[in-house]
Amino acid sequence: MAASAALRRALAFSRSSSSYILNPHKRSVLCYSPSLARGYRSNDNGMFLNSYVNTHLDPLLNQWQRGFAKAKKSIDESTVEVVPNVGPTIKSTASTQMQAGIDALSRELSKLRTGRASAGMLDHIIIESDGVRTPLSRIAAVSVLDSQTLSVTPYDLDAIKDVERAIVSSPLGLNPTLEGQRLVVPIPALTKEHTQAMSKLVSKASEDVKQSIRRARQKALDSIKKAVSSMSKDDVKRLEKEIDDLTKKFVKTAEDMCKAKEKEIMGK
Q1: For residues 219 and 97, is the Cβ–Cβ distance under 8 A?
Q2: 264 Cβ partners below 8 Å, 6+ apart?
């Protein structure tokens, strides 16, 4: 009875700050607290309760604490957010947009007639037949006979009239003639006025594509600013330099294409 009374007093003494642990040997509840750890004598057997605490409960509590620490570390590690590397995506997007501008420039330059025959100068012509619009390059084979003459051979002879009408109605000012199963297209020399007009169009196309490339650059820089919190300063500077180098590369490509077209127009 004295032992039971001692345990009840111990439980009452440390109820507010203690954890209750089942004693598997006596099927009773023991209480662990700093006050008990310093020593609480049971009245029935003369043994210190803190001896049991030190011998049995402290190792168990330490084991639990280590287990909780490992579990917390595992949870923390599993919930760490992995920030994706956005640099390659930003650079790839900018490159795609800049290349789209170069492709558009190539299409526009191909529409400009020069004093020399070029198979690509008819690529933009659209053939309309039975309500269907089809690029000439899909309907006919275009080849260069000489520096002043093109040959246009339709894959389907029934479409030759439609091809002829499309070439005549194009803004190139060409007049093909029918020779057997093909059309022969003479390329007349450009007048001085026509040459000057074509040069102005090339200059405008060059400026338009460079503006398009610079817009792609600015979009890339804006994307970098939005992602700056997930990147180091060195990575930001490196990526900005790569975007600038990419811009210079595409601008030079556009300039070279336009210079080549101007030489072609001038007959050089």
Answers
A1: yes
A2: 114, 116, 118
How many alpha carbons lie under 13 Å from residue 40 in its C-beta half-sphere? 23
Residue 108 DSSP code: H
CATH architecture of 116-186: 2-Layer Sandwich (3.30)
Q: Could you tell me if 34 and 74 are in contact, meaning their C-beta atoms sit under 8 angstroms apart?
A: no
pLDDT bin (cut points 50, 70, 90) of residue 178 is very high
CATH superfamily of 87-104+191-266: Ribosome-recycling factor (1.10.132.20)
- pLDDT exceeds cutoff 90 at 243: yes
Locate 147 and state its tokens: 């520096």
- Does pLDDT of 211 surpass 90? yes
pLDDT reading at 31 higher than 70: no
Query: How long is the chain?
Result: 268
Instruction: Provide CATH 3.30.1360.40 ranges for the chain.
Output: 116-186
Report which DSSP code applies to 48: B
Q: Mind listing the pLDDT tens digit for each residue in 82-111?
A: 446 778 888 999 999 999 999 999 888 877
| CA-wise closest residue to 194 among 208, 174, 176 | 174
Provide the mean pLDDT of the chain: 76
User: Per-residue pLDDT averaged across 28-54, rounded?
Assistant: 45
d(CA 91, CA 223): 10
pLDDT for the residue 265: 82
State how far the Cα of 234 lies from the Cα of 224, in Å rounded to an integer: 12
